[in-house]
Design a protein that fits this description.
Chain A: GO terms for molecular function: ATP binding; ATP hydrolysis activity. The complex is a heterodimer. By secondary structure, chain A is an alpha/beta fold. Chain A contains 16 helices and 16 strands. Chain B is mostly helical. In chain B, the strands form 2 sheets. Chain B has a two-stranded antiparallel ribbon with strand order 1-2. Chain B has a two-stranded antiparallel ribbon with strand order 3-4. In chain B, a hairpin with a 2-residue loop joins strand 3 and strand 4. The chains are: A alpha/beta, B mainly alpha.
Chain lengths: 450, 596
């Protein structure tokens, strides 16, 4: 084993709350990046992928633990890394060349030398002739090329990438990916190691020599294994699809031990999940859940999640919350990466809107603690209304501020759909929903909702 | 003196400057000669100003009413505005920067901004003037500095706030990029923070400078106790002319004023806006943009380019090199500095900081106590006068707001809905809005006296004159922002006029209307100081009001009353902001926000 370039030792991230509680974003994690490998970091949203990346680069300080750069604490070391950002993060008021030269300027390189280096790297990434253009004159793919040029011009030892292709269309992304791989394999760039954060499983399997899968609540390493498929990798090959399927299985079974890998693996043990009071609501819309159930029903009630995602052209980040929500409501069961519809789920998918709402209402009250509590609180109050703040404070004990707001938003969304309660947005209060006489105007309601 | 919405300026740009292409064909030599001419003119201007400032003391300045004196007076006024603006810009950037990056003082500095913005500038006048005259006793420069500092206090706060909030809203990935590539603070300021804040700063600068004219007109000539302060300038010229009823001179003065406003717009703001276009943080290039022949001239000039190549560029390069060296040298020392040492310097700096805070707190407490003892001299009857004045001014401010809203809402919506009308009305409205109300005030009063109107009407007229534009331009912007499909829905379902106003137009312009009203309300309170008490033709016209109390106290040098009245006014402005405008603003942000 080579010595690590970057080594994280028991790093964790948490936000202290006013009350003794603290919100754990990432539980203590060990991780190292060694020379000669492309590492892909996969995980559902909320697993702290980006946070982990920022701790490894030294941009963000861990709440506990330490990150080492060539065995020196990263805060005091002269670190040589770059980041390629999802949003490109180019300075719109600088030309392409000025953008690429900016990091060299920071290093005090003189103008002539800077220009030479800048032009050379622009040549490498295929941007000759664009040096005087402003980023806004370029297409997304070209802009990300500038992002790559700026990252590579400092000849970083480790190149970090934070979902670098997810803002691009499929073809452009594919093109850029293979060019990057070419630069890396031909050793055109002196970069020692590449660390890529992504939510695209195929992208990870295509690029990486090693894949790390994170779980959430709080973020932790679920599995960390090497990919032994030789380059160039064929997306249709059995080894490739098996691995993609395997990662789907890991991701869709948040609570289980990662299943056995099809190849040799160095799977790590799962850390303890924190005991949670409220379950975390997946941020899915009822319409999305219904749509997914209908699709599963069309696939004879049972299918591979991998294939479903493919059918929908969805990224896992888009699909997983919907699967989780359907699972939480008891409409779907997931085993070994396969989704199977339950009888209630099938009834839900086949019903018309009012019956759907009824089924959703029953399932929600039964399975979702937060919704149950909101309904009870409204019933127990004489004015039939409860301030949002009340639940905000309770959720706040357990989730970060952003997550708390998202949880409430989802709860409001579900509650309104199921007609469990209504929400007065100007007064920020949960109120009892006005019961319509469904029989009287069922037809008109259904039409509007459809 | 208004915040111009972006789209608005673009429309104007296309209309006025189709001719700008002509310049592209002229020779570079001509461009260079033009630039050299501008440079020489600037140099001469500096010489003239210096000669005047450091010349003999001029104890009694007589303001000439000859139109021939006007170019010189106008020049002096412009220099005052320019200097005050430069001072504001530097201060605003420093203030905003510290507030954004120092967690410890941030809340204090932002609360400070809020309050400082609410204090009526003109009540600072006597204090600032006396201090400055005391500092430079025999020279005109004391009074000059006083005027400049005063304008500065009027225009700096919104710029500081704009810079602060720009820094705060820089996208996270951009500042991470700057950090990961180890930009020095300087590089980050020049390549990230200043460009990102540029557009906000430019628009706020325009508002600030317009506000500066408003106050300059008022403070070029005033009486403090027995002393008569006069500064040669456009404001004093107009006041003198109005005082003697010299209509020819008044006309000349106003024409000069308009000429200056138009020239500033063409020679300063237009090039600056055209230049700042590249700092727009947008993904796609917008089709319409402001053009400026002057900017074109400056950018194409070879002389300027080579000057830049030989001065700024090498200087910048060496600076960046030095900063980079400092950093690489700096890192090892940081390593060798073991924790114990760190702790020691930590304690020392904490002690020092504590000491500084203690001393500062002591000074503040002492000064505050002194001010409070001053307040004890205020008699009960005077206190009653102040309260009565506050009520009267409160009513007057609201009447002027209602009057302004009553005509600007229909007019603004009409302009916003009809592009044809907008093309004609907007340039006219802009020129009209740019003339500082204080410059017109003497003229209006003369007219009022002739038809037998009272000062009460006059003061409302001045408030209206100064603040209606804020509402008008915001309403226009709001009306333009209403999506056309909403308007089509109203037509499709045959909404009645009332229903259309209630469901489409009023909710659509609501956020803009509130923004305009907030600014207008603050402006009206401030204007009351000039509006309720005015000297004309050796007589003092006044009416009951808080502004009149402040002005009268200034005149007679009763600082305790001045202080109390100022505090009362500041409290009223802050309270109204908190109780009325802020909730309305929040409502506008949540319920009436169109899109997204």
């Amino acid at each position: 084993m080579q010595p690590a370039i970057i080594r994280a030792e028991r790093v964790e991230k948490y936000y202290a709350q006013p009350s003794e509680n603290r919100i754990q974003v990432i539980s203590p994690t060990d991780l190292s990046i060694t020379a000669g490998e492309i590492v892909a970091l996969l995980g559902p949203s909320g697993s702290g992928k980006s946070t982990l990346l920022r701790m490894l680069t030294g941009l963000s300080t861990p709440s506990a633990g330490e990150v080492y750069w060539h065995e020196k604490p990263i805060a005091t070391a002269e670190v040589n890394v770059s980041i390629v950002f999802q949003s490109f993060a180019l300075f719109p008021w600088l030309t392409v060349l000025e953008n690429v030269e900016a990091p060299l300027k920071a290093r005090g390189m003189d103008a002539a030398e800077r220009r030479k280096h800048g032009m050379k790297i622009l040549d490498t990434v295929g941007l000759d002739g664009f040096q005087a253009a402003y980023p806004k004159e370029l297409s997304g793919g070209m802009r990300q090329r500038v992002g790559f040029a700026r990252a590579l011009v400092v000849e970083p030892e480790v190149l970090f990438m934070d979902e670098p292709f997810s803002a691009l269309d499929v073809l452009t992304a594919e093109n850029l990916r293979s060019e990057l791989l070419e630069l890396w394999q031909n050793k055109t760039i002196p970069t020692q190691s590449i660390f890529i954060v992504t939510h695209n499983i195929e992208e990870a399997v295509q690029l990486a020599d090693r894949i790390i899968v994170l779980g959430r609540n709080p973020g932790h390493v679920r599995t960390d294994f090497r990919v032994a498929i030789p380059h160039p990798r064929d997306r249709k090959a059995t080894a490739f699809t098996q691995l993609v399927d395997y990662i789907y299985k890991v991701l869709t079974q948040p609570d289980a031990q990662p299943p056995a890998l099809p190849q040799t693996s160095t799977g790590k043990t799962v850390r303890d999940q924190r005991q949670m009071h409220y379950q975390m609501l997946p941020h899915a819309r009822p319409g999305g859940i219904a749509g997914l159930l209908e699709l599963v029903l069309d696939h004879n009630g049972k299918d591979d999640i991998y294939r479903l995602a493919d059918d929908l052209a969805f990224q896992i980040d888009d699909l997983l919350p919907i699967v989780d929500a359907a699972q939480l409501l008891g409409f779907l069961t997931v085993t070994e990466g396969d989704a199977a519809i339950t009888p209630t789920g099938a009834e839900y998918a086949n019903s018309e809107i009012l019956r759907q709402k009824e089924l959703f209402r029953t399932a929600a009250v039964e399975n979702v603690l937060l919704l149950r509590q909101i309904v009870r609180a409204i019933e127990s109050k004489s004015d039939r209304s409860v301030p949002e703040e009340f639940f905000h404070d309770m959720l706040d004990e357990q989730f970060s501020e952003d997550e708390t707001l998202r949880q409430l938003e989802t709860a409001i969304n579900w509650g309104r759909y199921a007609e469990l309660f209504d929400f007065d947005a100007s007064r920020r209060r949960f109120i009892q929903s006005e019961k319509l006489h469904h029989d009287a105007d069922a037809s008109s309601t259904a039409e509007i909702d459809a | 003196m208004m915040k111009l919405p972006d789209s608005f300026s673009n429309i104007r740009g296309r209309e006025t400057f189709a001719r700008s292409q002509v310049l592209q064909r002229s020779w570079p030599v001509v461009l260079d000669l033009c630039v050299a001419g501008i440079g020489l003119a600037c140099f001469y201007g500096v010489v003239v100003i210096a000669r005047y400032w450091f010349g003999h003391p001029e104890p009694e300045i007589v303001i000439s009413q000859s139109p021939r004196a006007l170019p010189q007076y106008a020049f002096y006024s412009v220099v005052r505005i320019g200097l005050a603006y430069m001072l504001s810009l530097v201060f605003a950037i420093g203030y905003g920067y510290i507030a954004a990056y120092s967690k410890r003082v941030e809340p204090l500095m932002i609360a400070g901004l809020d309050i400082l913005q609410s204090i009526p500038v003109l009540s600072f006048l006597p204090g600032v003037m006396l201090a400055m005259v005391a500092l430079f006793p025999t020279r005109q420069i004391g009074v000059e500095m006083g005027a400049i500092v005063l304008i500065f206090t009027g225009q700096v706060w919104n710029m500081a706030f704009s810079f602060y909030s720009s820094i705060k809203s820089i996208p996270r990935e951009l500042s991470e990029a700057a950090n990961i590539y180890k930009f020095s603070r300087l590089q980050k300021l020049i390549q990230l923070e200043l460009p990102y804040a540029a557009i906000g700063l430019v628009w706020n600068s325009m508002v600030s400078v317009a506000g500066g004219w408003f106050f300059l007109m008022a403070c070029e000539m005033f009486v403090l106790a027995t002393r008569d302060f006069r500064l040669p300038g456009l404001g004093s010229y107009l006041q003198t002319a109005a005082g003697t009823g010299n209509y020819a001179a008044i006309t000349w003065g106003l024409l000069t004023m308009i000429a200056i406003i138009v020239a500033t717009d063409q020679l300063v703001w237009r090039p600056v806006i055209a230049w700042s276009d590249k700092f727009k943080f947008e993904q796609v290039e917008s089709s319409s943009r402001v053009r400026s022949p002057l900017l074109h001239l400056l950018q194409q000039s070879r002389g300027l380019q080579s000057l830049r190549q030989h001065t700024i560029v090498p200087f910048g390069e060496s600076l960046y090199r030095r900063l980079a060296e400092e950093r690489t040298v700096g890192t090892p020392t940081k390593i060798t500095k073991v924790r114990g040492e760190e702790a020691k310097t930590g304690i020392a700096s904490t002690l020092l900081r504590g000491l500084i805070i203690l001393v500062a707190a002591g000074v503040v407490l002492y000064a505050a106590w002194q001010a409070l003892t001053l307040l004890r001299q205020v008699h009960g009857s005077e206190f009653a006068t102040i309260l009565k004045g506050a009520m009267a001014t409160f009513l007057r401010v609201n009447i002027s707001l209602i009057l302004a809203a009553a005509w600007t809402i229909p007019a603004g919506v009409a302009i916003g809905f009809h592009p044809r009308l907008a093309r004609i009305a907007q340039p006219i409205a802009q020129i009209a809005a740019s003339v500082p109300a204080t410059a017109l005030f003497p003229v209006i009063l003369l007219a009022l006296i002739r038809i037998g109107g009272s000062m009460n009407i006059g003061s409302i007229a001045l408030m209206l004159l100064g603040t209606q534009w804020y509402i008008l331009f915001n309403v226009i912007a709001g009306a333009m922002a209403i999506p056309s499909d909403l308007k089509e829905v109203a037509t499709l379902f045959r909404f009645t006029t009332i229903q259309k106003w209630k469901t489409v137009i009023l909710p659509g312009i609501f956020p803009f209307l509130i923004t305009g009203m907030v600014t207008a309300s603050g402006g009206a309170w401030n204007a009351s100081i000039i509006a309720e008490y005015f000297r004309l033709k050796n007589q003092t016209l006044q009416t009951v009001g808080l502004g009149a109390v402040i002005s009268a106290a200034t005149d007679s040098g009763q600082f305790q009353i001045l202080l109390l009245a100022t505090i009362v006014m500041a409290i009223m402005v802050v309270t109204i902001n908190r109780l009325v405008w802020r909730p309305l603003y929040r409502l506008a942000e949540t319920r009436y926000k169109l899109g997204g």
